[in-house]
Amino acid sequence: HYPENFDYPYVSRSVTEFWRRWHMSLGEFFRDYVYIPLGGRRCSAARNVLNLFVVWALTGLWHGASWNFVFWGVYYFVFLLAERGFMRRALSRLPGFFSHLYVIFAVFFGWIIFRFSNMTLGWTVFLGLFGANGNGLADFAVVTQLKNNLFLLAVSIVACTPMARTLGNRLFIYSRRRPKLGSLWETAVYSLLPALMLLFSTASLVGDSYNPFIYFQF
């Protein structure tokens, strides 16, 4: 049994919550082997800030020996520090929709930092998201890609939320009340569904150009 590593991070309402849900094994590693040995929170406030900075700078370096990764780690250090302090009360008062929107923008900008070693180009891309630099919000190529992958996009959006897990749990409880349906449901969920997902993934990889999983690069 492998531990759960991602717990629907994109439903988070704060950056702190996002990192409790994202790549949990990596977070636990840095907590247990860097943050706590440095003193964790059992020290002065200034030392605790330094400990947090070291953890996030190393988290960035873990992803690659490049300044954009270091900047990416420090970027999240600033957010986590702010959410511990002056942003805590403001976030608690924000309606769920707006706090979620705040996280989405913060994380998406973080991915731009992560992906672009040339920060000037990254900033250009970020401005382009809002139609700046003479670029429209969308072009024909983007619209075509969305249309061609609409089903996959819809499935991905649902998979990013606990909706599928909640529905699966309810159906499982319902099927337990009917033994015949229960065995059929277990066969479908634990055998047929993974086989179909493997088949679909393999077909997508074979039919597409080579694009390695990003963590294989580190």
Structure description:
- Helix content is 72%, strand content 0%.
- It has 2 domains: 137 residues, no CATH class; 64 residues.
- The two termini are 25 Å apart.
- The protein is mostly helical and 218 residues long.
Rg, alpha carbons: 21 Å
β content, as a range? Answer: under 5%
Q: What is the approximate shape?
A: globular
Instruction: Indicate the structural class.
Output: mainly alpha
Fraction of helical residues:
over 70%
Q: Count up the domains.
A: 2
N-to-C CA distance = 25 Å
Low-confidence stretches: none
SSE sequence, one letter per element: HHHHHHHHHHH
Averaging pLDDT over every residue, what do you get? 84
Count of DSSP-assigned helices: 11
Count of distinct strands: 0
Largest sheet: none
Q: Tags for this entry?
A:
218 residues; 2 domains; 72% helix
Give a short synopsis of this structure.
The chain has 11 helices and no strands. The chain folds into 2 domains: 1-137, no CATH class; 139-202. Helices cover 72% and strands 0% of the residues.
